[in-house]
Specification:
Chain A: This is NrfD protein. The complex is a heterodimer. Chain A is mainly alpha-helical. Chain A contains 15 helices and no strands. Chain B has one domain (about 5-235): 2-Layer Sandwich (Alpha-Beta Plaits), CATH 3.30.70. In chain B, the strands form four sheets. In chain B, strands 8-1-9 form a three-stranded mixed β-sheet. In chain B, strands 2-3 form a two-stranded antiparallel ribbon. In chain B, strands 4-5 form a two-stranded antiparallel ribbon. By secondary structure, chain B is an alpha+beta fold. Helices cover about 15% and strands about 15% of the residues of chain B. Chains A and B meet through helix 4, helix 5 and helix 10 of A and strand 2, helix 2, helix 3 and strand 6 of B. The complex binds iron/sulfur cluster (2 copies).
Chain lengths: ~400, ~250
């Protein structure tokens, strides 16, 4: 096994300390404000109860699911050229989900009560009950699958079965997460039976962005340090798929935007005209966060350059984060019955505490990732693939 | 078994907010935590511009979407209590999904920025796990039904003054504040309403005053297309809530 992982050395230690400091700093700010003011330190309100922490959780949960789905390409569907990133995908899916759940925990009013109140009351009508069930299973299967891969069990029967179970778990978890929004007919901006598909797709896109970034980070942003099989993946199937994913994401957004703009219903239409398209940040996230990366990735030469791939992964990462934010907030900005003295959209900008939670989530994910790179062998792949060096795409 | 219902006659309502005040006094709610509120709208333009208003309690829906989404059963519809929808403050985890799912916007999470300064929670800091503890408090408290002053991190809402209604003699059908025998059991908003625009009673008894009014005066439910089927009905003109139009856009119709 070649071990050119720069995070195992001093660079890793430095990053570890840096991310730990950011994590602790943001945690102290968040806990300090929550401790002194409670959730009054958020800028959410009874009229707009779900803000950036929920969007952050959503972002992480879906990126995790996306990584889980990417891992299933080789592990369940036999796309062998993806083997070199399979283990890292599973690992990232696990830690990103943990980070998201940490953010969510600090958003809830009574987090510890959840541990008994959800299982004991078995409210199976609630999508949020199922979110708890499916994400708990998802976490369990990810851990189990990682354990199998870490033990070098790529092809054993149980390993395959756990892989399939994990794949199904991911589909259920993120699909159900979509329905938490998609089933709300009283919130027409979200109400959409096909929202699970949109979440799967965009989830894989954000997972791919995270994967590309962390693969390069592990190798000091130098592709030559990678195993040949990984190199051929990063210059072959993967960037092509990344391009297709960004393109598909843009199509989804376009379809939602066109239906929204066409509709007379102000609870959908005005969200697009007066909130999303009225926001410079939304435009930025759309054109620079998604369209520009797509254009870059369309070009066969650019697509394979390390710098371009890195830039695209960062842009898509940020672009989709904004997308999640505007999705969550957009469903609530038109007041139900409130704010009628001066009828206007409900204003919301995240508070310092809410930003602290978001930064805490990001830095925690980063921290756990560096730890993983340092102490685990995330670039492992089945011996057959490793020996072969290059996997010819046709084998897949 | 009773099924409590409320009827609000918009032809009589003057929009005075006495109900809002009575509710806040009765239930010790914070400023902005208006379990009962009067909302004002304007619609159209000269010469047919209109001013409309609408008192809004929790509708105690027959099909309460808030109940269906709650992951812990903290929000529940109690058929044995006339179908009132309660929040069990011992179970609520503060996920706020119910606030997303309620089409009527009548749920409150008081851990938010204060509506007015000074912040009442700073002036009367919470004791005994309460979010705030004002010197006068309604002695009735039942956290399993969301009655009293809530602890931090939970959702609160109108309870149809269950702590009063439940004390009424068995078989009470019409809660008329002019009837000395029952006036103490009438929900605070109904009892205080000067023009007598609000009625409260049993929707399960065909002869009840609320049923008669709904039948005779064409009672309607708000946002009926949501299918939530409120147990609160509105009479008179003005029960149609205009579509949302941001203030700076005006009405182009
Ligand atoms: S009005 Fe809202 S809070 Fe009240 S029962 Fe209906 S859905 Fe629930
Ligand atoms: S905030 Fe409380 S009452 Fe509302 S859905 Fe969550 S647990 Fe249930």
């Amino acid at each position: 096994m070649n071990d050119n992982n720069i995070l195992k050395g001093g660079a890793g230690t430095a990053l570890l300390i840096l991310s730990a400091l950011i994590f602790l700093g943001s945690l102290v700010v968040a806990l300090g404000n929550l401790g002194s003011q409670g959730h009054a330190s958020f800028n959410t309100s009874s009229a707009l109860p779900w803000g950036q922490p929920i969007a952050t959780y959503l972002y992480f949960a879906l990126a995790s699911s996306g990584l889980g789905l990417l891992a299933s390409l080789p592990l369940v569907f036999g796309f062998k050229q993806y083997y070199p990133v399979a283990k890292r995908c599973v690992f990232l899916a696990f830690i990103i989900l943990i980070s998201g759940m940490t953010v969510l925990a600090l958003e809830l009013g009574n987090v510890f009560r959840m541990l008994w109140a959800i299982p004991l009351n078995l409210q199976i009508q609630s999508a949020m009950f199922w979110m708890g069930v499916f994400y708990a299973l998802d976490l369990l299967f990810l851990l189990w699958k990682f354990g199998k891969l870490d033990a070098g069990e790529w092809d054993s029967k149980t390993s395959k079965q756990v892989g399939i179970a994990s794949f199904i778990g991911v589909l259920l978890a993120s699909g159900n997460l979509a329905l938490i929004f998609g089933m709300m007919s009283m919130r027409p901006f979200w109400f959409d039976g096909l929202l699970p598909i949109y979440f799967y797709f965009t989830g894989v896109t954000s997972g791919m962005a995270a994967l590309v970034f962390f693969v390069y980070l592990a190798h000091g942003f130098n592709r030559d340090k990678m195993h040949p099989a990984m190199q051929s993946l990063m210059t072959g199937a993967l960037p092509k798929m990344f391009a297709a994913l960004i393109g598909g994401t843009l199509l989804f957004i376009a379809a939602r935007a066109i239906t929204g703009l066409y509709s007379n219903n102000p609870e959908i239409n005005i969200v697009w005209t007066d909130y999303l398209f009225a926001s410079g940040l939304y435009h930025l996230s759309l054109w620079v966060g998604l369209l520009l990366p797509f254009v870059l990735m369309l070009n066969g030469k650019l697509r394979n350059q390390v710098n371009v791939q890195l830039l695209v992964s960062v842009l898509v990462f940020l672009g989709l984060f904004a997308e999640r934010f505007y999705f969550v907030v957009g469903g609530q900005v038109v007041p139900l019955f409130k704010g009628t003295w001066y009828p206007d959209l409900i204003a919301y900008t995240p508070s310092v505490t809410e930003w602290a939670l978001t930064i805490m989530g990001w830095s925690l994910a980063f921290l756990l990732c560096v730890l993983g790179e340092k102490f685990l062998n995330l670039s492992a792949m089945p011996d057959a693939i490793a020996k072969q060096g290059k996997v010819h795409p046709a084998i897949a | 078994m009773a099924k409590w219902g409320m009827v609000i006659d918009l032809d009589k309502c003057t929009g005075c907010q006495a109900c809002t005040t009575a509710c806040a006094m009765e239930n010790n709610t914070l400023p902005g935590e208006s379990w009962q509120d009067v909302l004002f709208y304007h619609e159209g333009e000269y010469p047919s511009g209109q001013m409309k208003w609408l008192p809004r309690p929790c509708m105690q829906c027959e099909k309460p979407s808030c109940v269906y989404v709650c992951p812990t059963r903290a929000t529940y519809k109690d058929e044995s209590a006339g179908g009132i929808v309660f929040v069990d403050w011992n179970k609520c985890i503060g996920c706020k999904y119910c606030m997303i799912a309620c089409p009527y916007g009548v749920r409150f999470y008081s851990d938010e920025k204060p509506l007015i300064e000074p912040d009442m929670r700073d002036i009367y800091p919470g004791q005994n796990k309460q979010l705030w503890s004002p010197p006068y408090q309604n002695p009735k408290e039942d956290w399993s039904r969301g009655i009293g002053i809530q602890p931090p991190g939970v959702v609160s809402k109108c309870t149809f003054c269950y702590h009063k209604v439940s004390q009424a003699p068995e078989g009470t059908v019409d809660f008329d504040e002019d009837n000395p025998a029952v006036k103490e059991y009438v929900p605070a908003c109904v009892r205080t309403c000067a023009p007598k625009a609000r009625y409260f009673g049993d929707l399960d008894v065909p002869e009840s005053q609320v049923n008669q009014l709904i039948g005779d005066k064409h009672g309607v439910r708000l946002k009926d297309h949501t299918g939530n089927k409120p147990q609160v009905y509105y009479l008179g003109a003005g029960a149609a809530v205009p579509a949302f139009t941001p203030a700076d856009k005006g009405d182009k119709s």
